[in-house]
Amino acid sequence: MDSRPPSPEAPPADLWSTILDSVSSSRSINSKQVLLLGQPSAGKSTLASALLQKQPADAGKDDLKIDFALGYDFANVRDDADEDTLARLSVYTVPSSNPSYTALLPHFLPPRTCLPHTLVMIVLDWTRPWTFVEELETWFQWIEKWAKGDGSREVDIAREESRERLQSHLQHYTEPSSEPIPATSSTMSSTLLPLGSGTFTHNSAGVPIIVTCTKADLIDEGHDLVAGASGMGGMVKGTGGEWEERTDGIMQVLRTICLKYGAALFYTTPLPTTLQVLRQYALHMLFTPPAPSPAMAGSDAPAPIRNPFPFNHKPNPLDRDHLVIPAGWDSWGKIEIVRQFEPRMWGDAWDRDLEDDGLPSEEVGAKKMFTSLVPDQGTKPAPLPPFNSPTPEQTFLAKNYDENAKKPDRDPRGAFRNPADLEGASAGIVGPLGSSTFSLPNVVRALSEMEVAGGASNSSVPDAPAARRMASRNTATSTRPASLTASTAQSGSVGRPPSSPSMASTPSPTGGQTQHEVLQNFFQSLLSKQPASTSPRPKANGNGSTTTNVPDGPTTP
Question: How far apart are CA 163 and CA 194, in angstroms?
Fold first, then answer.
């Protein structure tokens, strides 16, 4: 019989991989996200620096005044002893509610994986209190849309778990106390009271939400009227009773709305103490343990999971510059204690605004009620001009062509004609043809004046053919030499009979007319319908004798 001890079993081949995986899983770092939503210049960068415990950027440097489509930064969250890293906190910042910016968030924060580890912080600016309700409606509606995701089964499961966890946190909330909390039995821990009226009626996905009103130190700044306000209808800033009533009314409206979504309400100032309280509460909500399962209730139920970031600050609903209203503490009764207020009426008005289908209604919504409480003192941007749909080019040209074709004065040369000459003129292809078609306005006017001035002497003016012959004769005579002219005169006197005495008194061919009158007769001859060849010869002095034409050239004796 072999008495040797059995040999040990061979270790697994992936021994080191198993050890490393176990160590990695035990020391894995949780990843949490905070999403900052707000309009420009609301103080989001200050809150992001406080959440990450980093120095805020210097606002005076121009090179740092850059607002990206989606801001991102991260930091490690360490324990109180600064020994271990408990989580990695990422902060996403959206510049405004413009859809072009918010449409990017589902790509970086998909609800399927990020919904259980994301907290949303809505940032409101106390220097523009009249925008509170409108901005809250915008952001709460976006959160509901974002939490729905793609509607897959995984998203629905994550939404149910998140809602159960937030509801359990609201029901188990207890106000912090300096006294030690006594041990409670399992029966007491399993007994939960229902939520109060108007509590957690919205926010179907159970997203942790914190409404943060920044610049609370400017609530009572100054003692004058807000720009644009006058009389009792304006917002009188200062420490007067009317302004305090308005600010208390604003706080009650905000608390009523936050109560419907299971959200917390904080007022912050640039002081580090208020920002540090906000950071502690944000970490407390991010590490809220899941809701206990009903099947685990009993004597053998495991101990509840401890939150690594407890929130030990008491609620503070009185101080106007650092208000602290944790989720789960508030109720309609506590809201009504401050001043006379009707939270149910405001809650119903809020629901009417969310269900508004654009149809006119007699019932007033929350936005309109809030306007009567806080008049709008902001400057609205000018509306865009209506869209201009121009007429097609061919249609425009065809319309104007048809209109111009019907106008009798479509010929541009009509501007240079005498309107009296156009009457009775027939329209041609290129326009009406009148007596002044070939004349410029100045020429027509000059000729008309000359015709009136020389009308008395027109009877003694020879006709056009005679004028041309006389003009040619004068030209030829002026161009001959003197000797040749003298010889021609002598030969003419020898070969020709002497002229009668009446010829000596015959007027010159021009009849004493000026050069303008001759030019007028010349133009009139061009327009005459009678041919020049049929013109009769002129008679001298009416004695029946014809005038002998002088040849153009020199003659021999």
Answer: 15
Sign, CA torsion 489/492/498/502: negative
pLDDT tens digits along 347-374: 999 999 988 766 566 778 899 999 888 8
- H-helix or E-strand spanning residue 92: strand 85-93
Question: What distance in Å separates the CA atoms of residue 167 and residue 485, rounded to the nearest whole number?
Answer: 138
> If phi over 0 gives left and psi between -120 and 50 gives alpha, with beta otherwise, what is residue 9?
beta
Question: pLDDT digit string (tens) for 300-312?
Answer: 556 667 888 889 9
Which phi-psi region, left, alpha or beta, contains residue 75 (left: φ > 0; alpha: ψ -120 to 50)?
A: beta
If you count them, how many residues does the chain have? 557
Binned at pLDDT 50, 70 and 90, residue 17 comes out as confident
- CA atoms of 447 and 442, how far apart (whole Å): 9
Greatest mean pLDDT range, 343-357, 454-468, 510-524: 343-357
DSSP string covering 7-61: PPPPPPTTHHHHHHHHHHHHTPPEEEEEEEEE-TTSSHHHHHHHHHT-PPP-TT-
Helix (H) or strand (E) holding 445: helix 441-453
pTM for the model stands at 0.62
Task: Report in angstroms the alpha-carbon separations of 442 from 326, 439, 445.
Answer: 97, 8, 5
Work out the number of other CB atoms within 10 angstroms of the CB of residue 155: 19
Query: What is the rounded distance in angstroms from the CA atom of residue 117 to the CA atom of residue 162?
Result: 9
Percent of all residues in the chain with a pLDDT value above 90, rounded to a whole number: 33
Q: How far apart are CA 526 and CA 159, in angstroms?
A: 104
Task: Measure the CA–CA gap between 382 and 246, rounded to whole angstroms.
Answer: 29
Dihedral (CA of 388, 390, 391, 392) sign: negative
Helices (H) and strands (E) in the chain, counts: 20, 7
Residue in this structure with the two tokens 């008491």, named with its chain if needed: 314
Could you give the CA distance from residue 96 to residue 93 in angstroms, rounded to a whole number? Answer: 9
At residue 418's C-alpha, the angle toward residues 416 and 423, to 5°, is 125
Give Cα 79 distance to the centre of its chain: 48
Write phi, then psi, for 472 (nearest 5 degrees). -70, -35
pLDDT value, residue 150: 87
* Beta strands 118-125 and 30-38, pairing class: parallel
